[in-house]
């Protein structure tokens, strides 16, 4: 288990999130959403605090975190990359684009590069199907991306 | 009462509304096959995720087959439990489950006791038509429990035991779909988690996904080593269950045959943990009286209620979950550890041997005992007081390996001096027994009068939490009993909130006490077996010439020759222990 030191002010905020939902075990998913908003991800320590606050087992919390793909236990990179796998993007070769990102960055979907620079995830439709396949990095949107473009795109963040 | 009428396999049946098809069928003698389902009547254990679908039946007018364990009866239902469609569905389900199961039956620890294997047999599976990917998970070997999750069929029984019954909360289903597996948080190994090693997950696991850490071969190696004197001790609950492994009726007492078997296996001395249970009563009883009299004399510092401490699962539970209360339980070691400490001091002296030359083996109904004997505070210069702990099941395997015809063995007696015991020590094997044994001795020590009636029926039974008041010559002593850690938690919460009115509480981690331990022959969901074992324990007690621990002549001799008196310095050194705060700590970065 990675040991992350949480600042006390953040822990207080996390406890407030739990209190907002009356520290009810049945509100676990809402609390996890709030916690992920707060920390950007859900490290083990955060899950332990939530378990303690809601009086549920930490195994149960971890079970829910690992069930839903929305929840992540890995911190997002400074430049979070999302590849649209919606129907339009998919049929126009999004998978090849994704494979190229995976190959160059040497990470799987949901992971972050060792230097913390990039993280890779997939999403379903950003509403720009005319630009398919679409890739977003942070706030920037790249359209009609091909596998050949990937290297050039990444070099913008060197 | 709101009732519904229906027919199952052309038989009319009337049941209370809310009854499942499975229960209704059972009430008229139709046993619908089940796999993931398990219900332990009276023990607060009901596992019916409806996941495996082996129990499907055909309901007229319903398009899909219905899982009998989850479907409630309704008025006028017409149910068929074994049509061709049903049988085909069950076989398909079974084949799909088996397609993701390692076919290692020949060498599997659970072979012959596996619910999956017997269901495949029952449904006549001879061929697997589905070939697909197989789940692969990392193994996990703790001192007591082995997890081999490749063999898990996701029945979720272990989760029900760990969470609903024991409230330990170590196990949960994690991930999703094909990747899902039952695991501790963050997939940490059990020895890093707050697992108590109670072994109730092992007791209900249908396959070998969860088994005990097997030490039988280490025992054999010790026996054949000419440098070692090998001593065995057997816990009270073993003799009430071992016979089941050899096809005997549950509740058959096999004390004499067990002793005979152990002697034939080559142990140098066959002793009884019961002797150490009598010793526990001497120490724990004295501690109860000490705290009680200080309390009666107005000492506000004294901690009451006193809690028993002979169950290692329970000890680890309060160390993890109630660390602020670690000064409440008795400091008396468990009988297993008292035995080890005495064997490697007092008895080693008698033999004129060094403690390192002795190997103490315990036979326990328990898996937590395997962990307990590895705890550092129970070692002297790295030499453990108890070297190896094996379960009732492992002893049965040893007996089988040695080709002994168990049922035909002639009864033999334990060796002395550590083999003599009283009826009080025997009942340690069932819920309520430890406190009844303590009361028998504490009464006489406190009132200095002879206790005429030694049977305290008010302390016996199977209710999860029991309360009784015992009259100590005009002074009512309030006794609490809990078995199953979920029940224990309730009593502890009361103590924490200052609401407890008890003077003394007995706690056993396993439902039923040690008779229902995680190392006992598998009960396969039949609670009656536990009740029969309990009956056998009380029968053994009733048949003993001496029934109070302090009247055990060898215990008296031990104090006279070696220990002095209960709670003496020597007793404290050898027979008492201390506990640790094991609550997981979150590192906080001070800003």
UniProtKB/TrEMBL annotation, chain A:
<dbReference type="InterPro" id="IPR041921">
    <property type="entry name" value="NuoE_N"/>
</dbReference>
<comment type="similarity">
    <text>Belongs to the complex I 24 kDa subunit family.</text>
</comment>
<feature type="binding site">
    <location>
        <position position="89"/>
    </location>
    <ligand>
        <name>[2Fe-2S] cluster</name>
    </ligand>
</feature>
<dbReference type="Pfam" id="PF01257">
    <property type="entry name" value="2Fe-2S_thioredx"/>
</dbReference>
<dbReference type="InterPro" id="IPR002023">
    <property type="entry name" value="NuoE-like"/>
</dbReference>
<feature type="binding site">
    <location>
        <position position="129"/>
    </location>
    <ligand>
        <name>[2Fe-2S] cluster</name>
    </ligand>
</feature>
<dbReference type="InterPro" id="IPR036249">
    <property type="entry name" value="Thioredoxin-like_sf"/>
</dbReference>
<protein>
    <submittedName>
        <fullName>NADH-quinone oxidoreductase subunit E/NADP-reducing hydrogenase subunit HndA</fullName>
    </submittedName>
</protein>
<keyword id="KW-0408">Iron</keyword>
<keyword id="KW-0411">Iron-sulfur</keyword>
<dbReference type="InterPro" id="IPR028431">
    <property type="entry name" value="NADP_DH_HndA-like"/>
</dbReference>
<feature type="binding site">
    <location>
        <position position="125"/>
    </location>
    <ligand>
        <name>[2Fe-2S] cluster</name>
    </ligand>
</feature>
<keyword id="KW-0001">2Fe-2S</keyword>
<dbReference type="GO" id="GO:0016491">
    <property type="term" value="F:oxidoreductase activity"/>
</dbReference>
<dbReference type="InterPro" id="IPR042128">
    <property type="entry name" value="NuoE_dom"/>
</dbReference>
<dbReference type="GO" id="GO:0046872">
    <property type="term" value="F:metal ion binding"/>
</dbReference>
<feature type="binding site">
    <location>
        <position position="84"/>
    </location>
    <ligand>
        <name>[2Fe-2S] cluster</name>
    </ligand>
</feature>
<dbReference type="GO" id="GO:0051537">
    <property type="term" value="F:2 iron, 2 sulfur cluster binding"/>
</dbReference>
<keyword id="KW-0479">Metal-binding</keyword>
Automatic annotation (TrEMBL), chain B:
<dbReference type="InterPro" id="IPR017896">
    <property type="entry name" value="4Fe4S_Fe-S-bd"/>
</dbReference>
<dbReference type="InterPro" id="IPR009016">
    <property type="entry name" value="Fe_hydrogenase"/>
</dbReference>
<dbReference type="InterPro" id="IPR004108">
    <property type="entry name" value="Fe_hydrogenase_lsu_C"/>
</dbReference>
<dbReference type="Pfam" id="PF10588">
    <property type="entry name" value="NADH-G_4Fe-4S_3"/>
</dbReference>
<keyword id="KW-0408">Iron</keyword>
<dbReference type="InterPro" id="IPR036010">
    <property type="entry name" value="2Fe-2S_ferredoxin-like_sf"/>
</dbReference>
<feature type="domain" description="4Fe-4S ferredoxin-type">
    <location>
        <begin position="186"/>
        <end position="215"/>
    </location>
</feature>
<dbReference type="InterPro" id="IPR013352">
    <property type="entry name" value="Fe_hydrogenase_subset"/>
</dbReference>
<dbReference type="Pfam" id="PF02256">
    <property type="entry name" value="Fe_hyd_SSU"/>
</dbReference>
<dbReference type="Pfam" id="PF13510">
    <property type="entry name" value="Fer2_4"/>
</dbReference>
<dbReference type="InterPro" id="IPR050340">
    <property type="entry name" value="Cytosolic_Fe-S_CAF"/>
</dbReference>
<dbReference type="InterPro" id="IPR019574">
    <property type="entry name" value="NADH_UbQ_OxRdtase_Gsu_4Fe4S-bd"/>
</dbReference>
<feature type="domain" description="4Fe-4S His(Cys)3-ligated-type">
    <location>
        <begin position="85"/>
        <end position="124"/>
    </location>
</feature>
<dbReference type="Pfam" id="PF02906">
    <property type="entry name" value="Fe_hyd_lg_C"/>
</dbReference>
<dbReference type="GO" id="GO:0008901">
    <property type="term" value="F:ferredoxin hydrogenase activity"/>
</dbReference>
<dbReference type="GO" id="GO:0051539">
    <property type="term" value="F:4 iron, 4 sulfur cluster binding"/>
</dbReference>
<keyword id="KW-0677">Repeat</keyword>
<dbReference type="GO" id="GO:0051537">
    <property type="term" value="F:2 iron, 2 sulfur cluster binding"/>
</dbReference>
<dbReference type="InterPro" id="IPR001041">
    <property type="entry name" value="2Fe-2S_ferredoxin-type"/>
</dbReference>
<keyword id="KW-0001">2Fe-2S</keyword>
<dbReference type="InterPro" id="IPR017900">
    <property type="entry name" value="4Fe4S_Fe_S_CS"/>
</dbReference>
<protein>
    <submittedName>
        <fullName>NADP-reducing hydrogenase subunit HndD</fullName>
    </submittedName>
</protein>
